[in-house]
Amino acid sequence: MKWIVGLGNPGREYAKTRHNVGFMALDALADRHGMAFNQNKCKAVISEGVIDGVKTVLIKPLTFMNLSGESVRAYMEYYKVSLEDLIVVYDDLDTEIGKIRLRYQGSAGGHNGIKSIIQHTGTQNFNRVRMGISRPEPGFAIVDYVLSAFPKKEGDKLNAMITDTCDALEFSLRNTFEQTMAKFNG
């Protein structure tokens, strides 16, 4: 079994913001495979299904971004799942809009959702798909930027990035994460 956690903030007001690309990617992956987010447990909304023959659980924490680790820890403890089978999908300021970067370990890099997961799991070693949102123009506050919607002019890059993320997640179910990194970090 693989479990994929998309980071974001719950609520309609955040649905289309840069900080919610993790949720957007999981929604798109669920749509591809006819899965529904119809379970509410472990401080998250959850979708379970089979993708390419692999039981897969998609998790969107309802704790708000800065407390994402609470949901990850609750799911991990309740279902006794391994961090080796986890992939976290989230927005990244240091990756160009439209690009994705995969890593299997590292610091939070200033991302509070990742910081919370590291704090609640006690390790920096877990698979990640970072979805690029680029940095704001000078003088634009980071918090305002990540909580703003993508402008129309970035729509094509956003859609392509979501597609690439879904492709990478599907590939990772049948291959090692190192193979997935080699294919999608190119």
Q: In what order do the strands lie side by side in the largest sheet?
A: 2-3-4-1-5-7-6
Within CATH, the superfamily carries the name Peptidyl-tRNA hydrolase
Q: Show unreliable segments.
A: none
CATH fold title: Rossmann fold
- Coarse shape: globular
User: What's the number of structural domains?
Assistant: 1
> How much helix is in the residues?
25-40%
- What's the helix count? 6
- In terms of DSSP E residues, the strand content is 15-25%
| SS-based class | alpha/beta
Strand count, sense and barrel status of the largest sheet are: 7 strands, mixed
* Cα radius of gyration in angstroms: 15 Å
Using the 3D structure, state the CATH architecture.
Answer: 3-Layer(aba) Sandwich
How does this model look, in words?
This protein is of the alpha/beta class. It has one domain (2-184): Peptidyl-tRNA hydrolase (Rossmann fold, 3-Layer(aba) Sandwich), CATH 3.40.50. It is built from 6 helices and 7 strands. It has helices at residues 21-32, 68-79, 112-121, 142-146, 155-174, 177-184, and strands at 2-6, 39-41, 44-51, 54-61, 86-92, 100-103, 127-132. Helix 1 packs across helix 5, helix 2 runs parallel beside helix 3 and helix 5 packs antiparallel against helix 6. It is globular and about 45 Å long. The model has no long low-confidence stretch (mean pLDDT 97).
